[in-house]
Amino acid sequence: MDSESSLKWKIFNIIDDTDHESKPDRFFDFFIIILVLVNVALIFLESYKSIDEEFREIATFIEIITVLVFTIEYILRIWTCTCYKDYRDPVKGRLKYACTIYMIIDLIAILPFYVALLFPFHPRVVQFCRLCRIFRIFKLLRYYSTVDVIFSVLVKKKDYIFSIILILFTFLISSTFVMYTVESEAQPEKFEDFDNALWWAVVTMTTVGYGDVYPVTHIGKMFTIVMMLLGIGIIALQTGIIASGFLDEMRIRSEHEESKRIPSVADELIKIHELKTDGVISEEEFLELKKRIVLQHEKELNSQ
């Protein structure tokens, strides 16, 4: 193995998402997590003008250090991703890896800083950059493997979820059009355009009910009753599908973890050999137990 490959594997073992056992790996994870939390704290502290004015230079310095660290981390992840079996191709593998959800989050975490350097005086750019900094908190998801359950469930149930979203969207647009047609003449100041009717439909269907817009005609009130009842059912159906997916995924992973804890034949043989060595069992008992273990293993193989 050449020096470049050796260096790549050393770096990969430090930043690898699937292994957090080594001390450098744990230190790297801890450092990134602390940096993310500090940045999130600074975002909220900026809302206090007195604090922002007093510590602006320190906050700017931390911002630069953060972007520098996150940029180096992003580049190293792209460089070492070929160590993963699924991303071995030096070009296609890296492009595929760059499109994963975690790498997209990492890119969004640093992109606003460089966009602001290109367009430093444009107010919309400044607002966009300030808003996108909050995405840095999503980097924490990388360090908790249980978060993968969410993505796994969404992928497995995508067909059902898409179907329910399509039904929900169709029902929402239809309700918006009906309510706009029915209520626009009775209260033009409330339903003056399609946007206001859509706002009412979303608030009503989700049963939030702010009360700023509501029907006054008899037809509008009757339609609202039907809409609320159907809306609860449609949203509950979506929730039920996702909840069912979570239970199935947790059961599968639990069974997988349980199967990994089942001792192998070699482990059982070593255990009874140690018992024989310690004098807990005799030679005859050892041979008998060994025979039982081997026979049991053969039965399990034949049954599969």
Task: Give a brief description.
Helix content is 75%, strand content 0%. The protein has 304 residues and is mainly α.
Give a written overview of the molecule.
This protein has 304 residues and is an all-alpha fold. It folds into 3 domains: 3-143, Up-down Bundle (Four Helix Bundle (Hemerythrin (Met), subunit A)), CATH 1.20.120; 158-260, Helix Hairpins (Orthogonal Bundle), CATH 1.10.287.70; 265-303. It is built from 13 helices and no strands. It has helices at 3-15, 23-45, 49-54, 56-80, 92-98, 101-118, 123-132, 148-156, 158-183, 194-205, 218-261, 265-277, 283-303. Helix 1 packs across helix 4 and helix 9 (158-183) runs antiparallel to helix 11 (218-261).
List keywords for this structure.
13 helices; 75% helix; Four Helix Bundle (Hemerythrin (Met), subunit A); 304 residues; Helix Hairpins
Number of helices: 13
CATH architecture of the largest domain: Up-down Bundle
- Count of structural domains: 3
E-strand count: 0
Q: What name does CATH use for the topology of the largest domain?
A: Four Helix Bundle (Hemerythrin (Met), subunit A)
CATH homologous superfamily grouping of the largest domain = Voltage-gated potassium channels. Chain C
What coarse outline follows from CA principal-axis ratios?
flat
Name of the CATH class of the largest domain:
Mainly Alpha
Biggest sheet features: none
* Helicity, as a percent range: over 70%
Rounded radius of gyration (Å): 29 Å
- Structural class of the helix and strand makeup? mainly alpha
The end-to-end distance, rounded to whole angstroms, is 40 Å
